[in-house]
Amino acid sequence: MHFSDNVAALTPSATLAITARAKKMRAEGRSIIDLSAGEPSFPTPEVAAEGAAAAVRAGRTGYPPTPGVPELREGIVRYLGETSSYAPDDPAGVLVSAGVKQGLFNLCFCLFGEGDEVLIPAPFWTSYLAVVELARARPVVVQTKFDEGFALSVDRLEAQRTENTKGLFLNSPSNPSGVVMDLGILEDICAWAGEHGIWILSDEIYRRLYFDGDSAPSVFDVKDRPGHVVALDGMSKAFSMPGWRIGWSVGPPELIRKASALQSQTTSAAAGPSQYAAAAALASEGRESIVGEFRRILDRRRQAAHAALQGIPGFDAPLPPGAIYMYGRLGSGDRAPGDSAAVAESLLVETGVATVPGEAFGTPGFLRLNFSVEDEIFAEGSDRIRAWFGST
Length: 392
Ligand SMILES: Cc1ncc(COP(=O)(O)O)c(C=O)c1O
Description:
- Helix content is 40%, strand content 14%.
- With 392 residues, the protein is α/β, with parallel strands linked by helices.
- The strands form 3 sheets. A 7-stranded mixed β-sheet has the order 2-8-7-6-5-3-4, sandwiched between helices.
- It is globular and about 60 Å long.
């Protein structure tokens, strides 16, 4: 079949494809340990479920306003003010979308086009390349090093900057590495981007899943940030509500209005009941205890996962400071030749453990494992991985 140039190079999300394959194998009767998915395993908080149910019962099921229902947009402004240094108190700079994914698509489509280059530090979340390419711009990967804790620096960015550089993606805590950028480096990068008129799209979906404090630093904590900054966050991770599809972009009102116009022509708005669920969760008195409890459980699982993976020859997985993944480097032994796609394939076929290879994140030679699954599931998965790598 002939497809348009818009989608000629488009492939399905690598992580979603692996998760779908693991589900299929399980349906065929295999014993599958799925460590590939990108979602926490907690149920939706009760207050959110109630918020959606109450809105539906009250008949609030018409088309929502394109940028989001007022309760949610105002709730996001309050939430940001309470959990970061974000100061504006009106919601003109907030656009609610069907997840951060739609937010990123809106923004890339509005800001970038043919001939533009967008810097993407690796390892990166698998969809960043695709979304830049859908806007017909060119993703430019900026490599970082495992031995340096995947630290990003202005020097690394500057080395890739050209006169066509229009944008930069940031993602802290990072999927897949869990690495967190401190405020100092965020300040340096904001100053550099401001000087060169480069848009920063800061994907902060894991900001609250940070284990050395309540929140990882946000671009909104940078006092002298330039005007060309947008931060994205949502309900999928910290509130464990990925299926509700609620995310938001927060930035200059002029850009938000254009992105909203684009959304009005594509999806109209994020689903209304989901917006009321999110609004109820953000406004609830128990909000911080919900997030805090998730963080406490995840921290315990993170420590257990880290301990369970220690001493496996040919697999070096450091303790991540944020997010929900162990990102381990493969060694050069017989069992782990550094070809992570082949290793992930063998692990799945031979042991039934689904992981995501580093190829999906622009860094071959690594494996990503979701540590947020229930304790016994990770324990069984790490036992099978250890046996596969040939240790006892
Ligand atoms: C870094 C990152 N950004 C965005 C998303 C998607 O977020 P949403 O569910 O809000 O579309 C994910 C999901 O895995 C992610 O890991």
